[in-house]
Amino acid sequence: MTGYVLRRALQAAAVLLAITAAAFGLFYAAPSDPALIACGPKCDTGQVEAVRHSMGLDQPLATQYADYLRGLVAGRTISDVDGTPIDCAAPCLGYSYTLHQPVLDAIGDRFPVTLSLAGGALAVIVVLGVGVGFAAALRRGTATDRLLSGFTLVGASVQIYFLGYALQYLLVYTTDLFPVPGYAPFGDGPGAWAAGLLLPWLVLGFVNAAVFARLARSQMLETMHEGYVRTARGKGMSALHAHLKYTGRGAAAPLVQLLGLEAGALFGGAFITETVFGLGGVGKLAVDAVVQNDLPTVVGTVLLAAFFVVLFVALADLVVAWLDPRVRLA
Amino acid sequence: MTSALHTDPAPAPAPEASPDTVLRVRDLTVSFGGRGRSVTAVRGLSLDLARGEVLGLVGESGSGKSTVGLAAMGLHDAARTTVGGSVTVGGTEVVGAPDSAVRALRGARIAMVFQDALAALSPFHSVLEQLAEAYRLHHRAAGRAEARERARAMLDRVGIPAARARDYPHQFSGGMRQRVMIAIALVNSPDVLIADEPTTALDARVQRQVLALLAELREESGTAVLLITHDVGVVAATCDRMLVMRGGEAVEQGPTEKLLHHATHPYTRALIGAAPTLDTVPGTRLPTVDDPEPAAGTGPVAVPEGAAGAGAGTAAARRPAAGPGSAGTAPGREAAAARAGRRGPLASGGGSAADPGSAGTAPGQAAVPGRRGPLTGGGGPVAEPAGAVLAEVADLHVSFGGRRSLLGRRAEPVRAVRGVSLRVGTGETLGLVGESGSGKSTTARVLAGLQRPTSGSVRFDGRDIARAAVDTRLRRALSRDVQLVFQDPYASLNPRRTVEESVTLPLRVHTDLDAAARRDRAVELLEQVGLSADQLGRYPHEFSGGQRQRVGIARALALRPRLIIADEPVSALDVSVQAQVLNLLMDLRDELGLSLLFVSHDLAVVRHFCDRVAVMRAGTVVESGPRDEVFDDPKAAYTRELLAAAL
Q1: Which residues contact A242 (CB under 8 A, 6 or more apart)?
Q2: B107–A246: do the CB atoms touch at under 8 Å?
Q3: pTM for this structure?
Q4: What is the mean pLDDT of chain A?
Q5: Shortest alpha-carbon distance between residue A5 and chain B (Å)
Q6: CATH number for the domain harbouring residue B567
Q7: Is residue B25 part of a domain?
Q8: Given CA atoms B306, B311, B317, B321 in this order, what sign does their dihedral have?
Q9: Each residue of B184-212: pLDDT tens digit?
Q10: A323 interfaces chain B, CB cutoff of 8 Å
């Protein structure tokens, strides 16, 4: 077990290293000059060169990459455009000359929003997706099944920017049924926090729950006819009890795996949802950085998203192994 | 045949509505599917099971026997199944009763053991938990500790050591798992145990042990057993009475001894005689049931008595010297009858019914004269095994696994084959027999060029073929001469290819015959295996299991190979179909002078079909020699054990 965790951690580190290398390559592949952007449009050639030197961009690529990695692990000192040293503590993701703050700080400012949004949406996904899927499977072939399956099809086919704006218009601005969406820090009171995020949670959750519901339904239907479910009923267990205890467990593994991927993706930021509801999360930060050629921030957010995907996929594997003793952690 | 399940004299069949009847089935009809298309699996079945009695419910696949068991448990999916008639367990009606009422019976008064214990046990819970759960469901007042105590005692009773109670099903062997399954079924001392093919997936020795355990427990508790099986041998060894089912209906029922020796219904006789036993005269034609798919409302099945003449006579006569030790084998029925006199009850139907199905091969044979020439180089029916060696392995070792993983320790490799040496002579059939995990299939795969040996030499016709599994050209050259027949005729034919496409594929790969010539050859092949030319355009799903296996055999014959490797070619088939396919293989071998490597776990089938036999255990050959030597005078203790375990 310990060996497994260690191996997985090393694998994760390798994956992240590959991603930093790929993202770092962006600096050079992208048709833009970080020094020019950092310096601003009014700089002359000499000033740009000075900036280039102070940013270390005139160093060989390998040196810069090594500096970046060292910053990640041990922190480093970065020069601002005018040469003032900026202390960037580990894990240093670089300095954004657009935002005039270290990338990690920029992410840190927005991460609570992303964390709140992703966490709530995941809860909605699990409850709605698994609940609807299981209910449909238990009543397969009936009107309930068709209704629930149709419901999930709507979720799978509708776009967030449509559903989000439509619901906002109908439920918030026309009827006043929901509070105005927005982010209030959890520390300022859980009530306001939850109220502001309620609609974003439901929308993001519903759209993503559709895939879950469909997978949960088909997994359930497949597992329902397993011998061990029949054995449980043969012991005198009620059908519902047997399905909850045995079918549910048998159907869980692919759902957990998918949930791991989903969680990884959501914690990396949900740009569309954030935009629709005016939430300043990591997704919006990342897209803004791309638009503004803010390469340090782009690399930082890409790395963050990759980190969460790797983390949650590994967690999902552990959960699957815990659920099914036949799974060997290797 | 000794009776393992009971030592007391058999209780008389229960009279109508006797208070002693624990399971009473009347006019049971079960049909699946609604909305117009429905299939009736069981039609008007009635049976009584008295306290402590063992009733064998015998039938081939599709006979409805398992459906009866599930209906007795009330376990059918109500939404898709219509159950009519009456099933009472200890006086309580099951059919149409509310779920809560049936639930009170299930696991308490009536319990079930399924064929595949690995599938039937939860992979997520320890065996102790699963057993304790079965107890607690019917002892609501019992605490967890009490249930565990009770579960431990039960595990101990079925021979699972306490130290293993917290292990999971996948950590146990097949026999141990079935013991757990039995423990779960019997933990609440039910009146009725429904055992659906409880030992079918097990090796013969383990089957013996499990049946003996069932018998002991039955005697202790007085639980009546409804034993559902396709295997007449199991019934003969364990049941007081038997009921033969076919096409959803009861064909015949009565005391086991009576049915085994003096069945009135021809289907019963055919079923009993279809499987070769260790007393059947080797190489004789096996009796088969005339039509493989019974029509709805089957009447008596005509199995012409005494029509065995030509078929059986030639089959036995064709190999006068089939192996050095068998010179005394007399052809025809007299020998069968003579041997039947001194053998067990199972043989009573032996060697008498003709097989119109495979009789269809006779015209096919006549239509292709001179076939033997090009294939065998004019060789006689049987070459001396010691003579021309066609294929051989020497000191073969095959290991699997043992790869090093990232940061991982090197896993211990599985040594599947450890020093096997075998020879298949030209025109000879070598039987490779062993239990599961003995390495027999791996050895066969090496000879087929599908598995690279870890060490040792592999030769076909003098040529080194050890690298065939990794050398495409060598493998391709080898496959002209070596073809395979597989166990599962459902999995081994591409469902999207017509029979013609499947059968002619080897010709397309290996010959430059044009489409017309390939078709001609396909027609010839189908006729050879007892199918007809108009079936060329059909797809596998339109055929029964036995017909599919015939297609598989036709495909293997397409290139006129010099060696056919058949890995359990009949073990997935019903006994009557198995008899047809074995008869066909014997005909073809005779007609074409084939050399065969025949892999099987079934001693009786190997004895019936093979010239020489090699017995494998744990990757080594423990004994090999001419058939009669191995079977009549086994040298290895393990061989004797296997023979003793065969039912």
Answers
A1: A229, A232, A233
A2: no
A3: 0.78
A4: 87
A5: 11
A6: 3.40.50.300
A7: yes
A8: negative
A9: 999 999 999 999 999 888 888 899 999 99
A10: yes
